[in-house]
Amino acid sequence: MKLGFIVGEVLSALRRNVSMVVSVVLVTFVSLVFVGSAALLQMQVNGMKDYWYDRVQVAVFLCPEGSPVQTCAGGEATEEQKAAIEEALQGDDLAPYVEEVIFEDKATAFRLYNEQFEGTSLEGAVAEDQMQESFRVRLVDAEQYEILDEYFSATEGVEDVVDQHELLDQIFAVLNVLTMVAIAVAVLMLVCAVLLISTTIRLSAFSRRRETGIMRLVGASNAFIQMPFVLEGVIASGVGAVLASVALGAVVYFGVDGWLQDRAPSFDLVGLGDVALVAPALVVLGIVLAGVASLVTLRRYMKV
């Protein structure tokens, strides 16, 4: 009987406060969409870091014709200089730091360049003899790039030593900023959702103050009186959380898996499996926030 009474009270309250309940659902939906988006974006950033940092290399660029660098005063790197540089890279001094060395000649650099910019205006913009030869070095510890930079800083035939981590760090820094912006917006929207839930519960309690007073007089406990109000906020917030999860799944399925993945096949993008990990957390977060907000509001403002 008690359960039936509580269910009836909750359904009655939801019917009476349709506009406020819809507002709670929508605000919760929007806020949790931002929370889920921030979580998925951070998962994408972490996945990209793991993928690219394992494959990143240090490029030892050899002198091209006409380079103004002092170590290239003799012109384009000679075969003897190339052999000396390769011997140094594979020698005992650098053996503790170097994992793999690959020589990239002009033909290989030209092919990779055209593959990278295939279908764009840059494809074929540079002739093969204009490409720069280099040694691609994979380090045992990618953070020890400075050792190679210092080792070849004054070596004849070496124009520059470039660490690809620097380029990746700039990209990931931008992505991390976007994640922080999404988190900030999500927190702001969650605050709005909590305030709206509190306001809804206060109005609902005020409109039924006579009923709750009678229930108190006949010996109903505080938990029994407050339960319908708490469930009202939890249900509205739970519906918003479920809708947010469905929306994220649709965006990932149609936007990421369906559209973006076809245009960036070399990237391992977030998928429905990641959404399945995030969705339960969103539902729990929505329910917990609504429950806590409802209880705090009732204890503070509900006088029966």
Automatic annotation (TrEMBL):
The membrane-topology field of this record reads:
Multi-pass membrane protein
> Which residues does the UniProt record annotate as the domain ABC3 transporter permease C-terminal?
184-303
Listed transmembrane segments:
21-41, 171-201, 234-256, 276-298
UniProt-listed Gene3D superfamilies: 3.30.70.3040
Is Ubl conjugation found in the keyword set? no
Recite the UniProt keywords alphabetically. Answer: Cell cycle, Cell division, Cell membrane, Membrane, Transmembrane, Transmembrane helix
Q: Where in the cell is it found?
A: Cell membrane
Residue ranges occupied by any FtsX extracellular domain in the UniProt entry: 56-161
Q: What is its main location?
A: membrane
Summary of subunit composition and partner proteins: Forms a membrane-associated complex with FtsE.
What is this protein's function per UniProt?
Answer: Part of the ABC transporter FtsEX involved in cellular division.
Q: What is this protein called?
A: Cell division protein FtsX
Annotated organism of origin: Brevibacterium samyangense
What phylogenetic lineage does the species belong to? Bacteria, Bacillati, Actinomycetota, Actinomycetes, Micrococcales
Q: Give the encoding gene's name.
A: ftsX
